[in-house]
Write a structure and sequence with these properties.
The chain is α+β, with helices and mostly antiparallel strands and 252 residues long. The chain has four domains: 97 residues, no CATH class; 69 residues, no CATH class; 32 residues; 33 residues, no CATH class. The chain is built from eight helices and ten strands. Strands 1-2-5-4-3 form a five-stranded mixed beta sheet. A three-stranded antiparallel beta sheet has the order 6-7-8, with no helix packed on it. It has a two-stranded antiparallel sheet with strand order 9-10. Helix 2 crosses helix 5 and helix 6 packs antiparallel against helix 7. The protein is elongated, with a radius of gyration of 29 Å. The two termini are 56 Å apart. About 9% of the residues have low confidence.
Length: 252
C-alpha cells in the first residue's frame, strides 16, 4: 500500500483487492480502470487497486482521459498499461509519467530486487519464499504468488537465474570441460552397460548429434500381413488392418 497527498488528502493505491478490503470493507472495485468513472475504485492492469481522481474528455474525438495516483492515461491507448508495481510517479498530471531521475531510481531498485530474487531461486529456494526475501515490502499472499510466477516466466529473470547457477557451478569447478571429461571417463570405465549408454547418450546430446527438428515428423505405420508393395495395392482395393502407429522426428 502507498499513497500520494494531494491538497491535504491522502489518495491510496493498494497491492491487492484483499488489502483494499481491509481498509474499505464496503468498497466496490470495478474490473478495469479504462471503464471506471470519476471517484470509483478500479483495478490497474497488474491488479493493484486505486481510485480514479479525474476523468475528462480531450481532443476533437473526446477521448477519455483518466488520472489516478499512478499517473494520467488515455483509455483508448491499449499499448500503455497502468501498473501499480511501478509505484506512484512524481508527476501524475502528464502522460509522460515519471521524470527521468525518478525512472532511473525505480529501475535501479527494481533491478536490484529482481537480481536478489534470481539468486535465491538459483539456490533451489521456492519462488514464493525467494520473492518474500527479495521484495520484503510485499505483504499480500495472492500478489506474491502471482508476481513470483510471472517473474519466473520472464526472459530477463530466466537469464539471471541461469547466470547465477553458472557462477555457482564455476565456483565449485564444475565447468563444461569437467562435465565432459567425467562423462567420457564413465563411458570408458563403467562396468555397467546401462551407465555407459547413459554417458554416451549425454555426450551425444552435448555434441548436437541428437538435435531434431521438432516441426517435421516421419510417420511409421505397420500393417498386418502386407509388404510395402502389397500395401499400395491393398490400399487401392481393400481395408488393411492397422496394428501399430509411431512417429519420429527427423532432420531435413
Amino acid at each position: 500500500m502507498d499513497f500520494k497527498e494531494i491538497k491535504n488528502t491522502e489518495h491510496y493505491i493498494y497491492d491487492s483487492l484483499q488489502e483494499f478490503k481491509l481498509h474499505n470493507s464496503e468498497g466496490v472495485v470495478r474490473h478495469n480502470w479504462r471503464h471506471g468513472d470519476e471517484g470509483e475504485w478500479v483495478y490497474t492492469d497488474d491488479d493493484f487497486v486505486c481510485q480514479i481522481l479525474k476523468k475528462t474528455f480531450i481532443g476533437k474525438n473526446k477521448d477519455i482521459c483518466i488520472r489516478t495516483v499512478c499517473g494520467t492515461f488515455l483509455a483508448k491507448d491499449m499499448d500503455r498499461e497502468m501498473l501499480g508495481d511501478e509505484g506512484i510517479p512524481e508527476n501524475i498530471y502528464t502522460f509522460s509519467g515519471k521524470n527521468v531521475g525518478q525512472e532511473k531510481f525505480n529501475k535501479k531498485n527494481r533491478t536490484s530486487s529482481e537480481l536478489m530474487f534470481a539468486r535465491y531461486a538459483a539456490t533451489g529456494m521456492g519462488a514464493i519464499e525467494a520473492y518474500k526475501l527479495a521484495f520484503p515490502d510485499a505483504k499480500s499472499e495472492d500478489y506474491i504468488k502471482n508476481r513470483s510466477e510471472k517473474l519466473l516466466k520472464t526472459e530477463r529473470i530466466e537469464k539471471m537465474i541461469s547466470k547465477e547457477i553458472r557462477a555457482k557451478l564455476d565456483e565449485e569447478g564444475v565447468t563444461d570441460n569437467w562435465l565432459i571429461e567425467r562423462y567420457k571417463t564413465i563411458a570408458d570405465l563403467a562396468e555397467s552397460d546401462t551407465a555407459k549408454l547413459r554417458s554416451l547418450d549425454s555426450l551425444a546430446k552435448m555434441s548436437g548429434l541428437f538435435e531434431f527438428n521438432q516441426n517435421k515428423q516421419e510417420k511409421l505405420e505397420i500393417w498386418a500381413g502386407f509388404s510395402p508393395e502389397q500395401l499400395e495395392e491393398v490400399k487401392k482395393h481393400g481395408k488393411p488392418e492397422l496394428i501399430a502407429h509411431a512417429e519420429k522426428t527427423k532432420n531435413d
